[in-house]
Amino acid sequence: MASTRDVDLNASVGAAIRGEFPIFETATYLNSCSQGALSHRVRDAVETWLAGWDANGAEWDFWVERNEAFREAIARLLHAEVDDVAVTTSVSQGVSALVSALDLAGERNRIVISEYEFPTIGQIAHAQELRGAEVVHVRPDSDGSIPPERFAEAIDERTALVCCTTLSYRSGHRHDVAAIAEAAHAAGALVLADSYQACGAVELDVRSLGADAVTGGTVKYLLGTAGLGYMWVRPEVRARLLPTQTGWFADEDIFAMSIADYSPHASARRFDSGTPPVPSLYAAVGGLSLVAEAGVPTIEEHVQALATRLLDGLDELGAAAVTPREPERRGPLVCVRSTDVGALVAALAAERIIASSREDKLRVALHLYNVAEDVDTLLDALRRQRPLLA
Ligand SMILES: Cc1ncc(COP(=O)(O)O)c(C=O)c1O
After folding, report:
1. Is the CB of residue 118 below 6 angstroms from any atom belonging to ligand 1?
2. How far is Cα 266 from Cα 239, in angstroms, rounded to an integer?
3. Higher pLDDT, 12 or 224
């Protein structure tokens, strides 16, 4: 007999929610690390935006309401205050605004980045070399992990910012952000945790995560679409951060319409930029509501169980998974080495199993709508494609 807990779990994830996502009628979808599956709810939300445009033209008040509804939903998800959340058009925009607020011309000019940062973080960091920055890379140990000690070795009183992605988009490793933040804060440095590959599938609480800025977007585990992101900024550090990359939505009063000065908002809105991406806001509020109803702790438990099933199956195949076995060191993404990953992704796609790749690794992303049969379908296909696994 199912326990009460099983019943609760089944009520909001897996088979119980799958009907909301039409793609599963024709595919085994394992690519949420690239794009979350489209739901009926998100489609309806986007159609509401189109209908409003048709009926009324510019629905300015409604757009502002959606912008704030998104900010509030992110605040709830991250256990944060609404005033500490910026609405951004991408991780790139938010991080560029953040970095533009750093004084990199003096002694404290170093940006430390992990080897697992998404390209945009590395590229923004290196762009600051034009403003006097020095970039220090922290590389993984031979087992693929980057323990906090490696960061501590790279951090000193010259460090302005430490970038430690919460979960690697290319290996599935999870960083110990709290321990890294402790080392950074001891040296007076700020910490940025790009959490795009975790948020929505891993419970994140900014009160315990330890970072000073937490960012991500809506395309993946938040079940929305492109053009929209968020950045939480610790209120204690915000006052001394004045972004020089900015826009009128970051002003203390967007209706002042002044071209005579720069007056950034007192809240994290100072990291917003121009007119928000309205269709993406509608989609994101819909997608986030599905995540919130399921509950991230429940999603995380579900996803961890599926990842364990997958890793066990990969072991049986004698495959080389690079993602750690310990649940606390991984999340929804499992990566496994291939001898020809392009051919492997194509062979899986031919069977309507949708996954992705980075470097020589197959990436398998698990989310609230996946079920054990998805993992078994993939493992059966991988057994047939065994020569393509390293
Ligand atoms: C970890 C991570 N950071 C950032 C991005 C992209 O950020 P942006 O919103 O700037 O496109 C991605 C994926 O596209 C990602 O996986």
Report:
1. yes
2. 7
3. 224
Distance separating alpha carbons of residues 271 and 28, to the nearest angstrom:
38
With a 6 A CB cut-off, is 232 part of the ligand 1 pocket? Answer: no
Residue 84, both tokens:
């500490």
Atom 9, ligand 1: residue with shortest CA distance: 90
The residue behind tokens 């169980």 is: 305
Does ligand 1 have an atom closer than 6 angstroms to the CB of 197? yes
Checking if the pLDDT of 174 tops 60, the result is: yes
The verdict on the CB of residue 168 being under 6 Å from ligand 1 is no
% of the chain beyond a pLDDT of 70: 97
Q: Is the pLDDT of residue 10 over 80?
A: no
Question: Given the CA of residue 33, which atom of ligand 1 is nearest to it?
Answer: 16
Q: Select from 88, 117, 168, 169 the residue to mutate for testing ligand 1; criterion: most ligand atoms less than 8 Å from CB.
A: 169
Question: Given a cut of 70, is residue 159 above it in pLDDT?
Answer: yes
Residue 62 confidence (pLDDT): 87
pTM (two decimals): 0.96
Torsion of CA 298, 202, 235, 233, to 10 degrees: -140
- What the block records as the tokens of 306 is 């599926």
Joined together, the tokens standing for residue 326 give: 């310990």
- Cα–chain-centroid distance for residue 44? 24
Q: Is the CB of 169 under 6 A from ligand 1?
A: yes
Residues listed for the chain: 390
Residue type, 69: A
Question: Distance, CA 159 to ligand 1 centroid (Å)?
Answer: 24
Q: Which atom of ligand 1 is nearest to the CA of 229?
A: 9
Q: Are 31 and 369 in contact (CB under 8 A)?
A: no
CB of 194 sitting under 6 A from ligand 1: yes
Q: Quick: pLDDT tens for 360-386.
A: 999 999 999 999 999 999 999 999 999
Which residue is associated with the tokens 């945009």?
120
CB-facing half-sphere around the CA of 89: CA atoms within 13 A: 14
Question: Interior CA angle at 72 toward 16 and 36, to 5°?
Answer: 40
**Is the Cα dihedral 33, 215, 273, 127 positive or negative?**
negative
Cα(31) to centroid(ligand 1), Å:
14
> Is residue 223 a contact partner of residue 365, using CB atoms and an 8 Å limit?
no
CB 229 near ligand 1, within 6 Å: yes
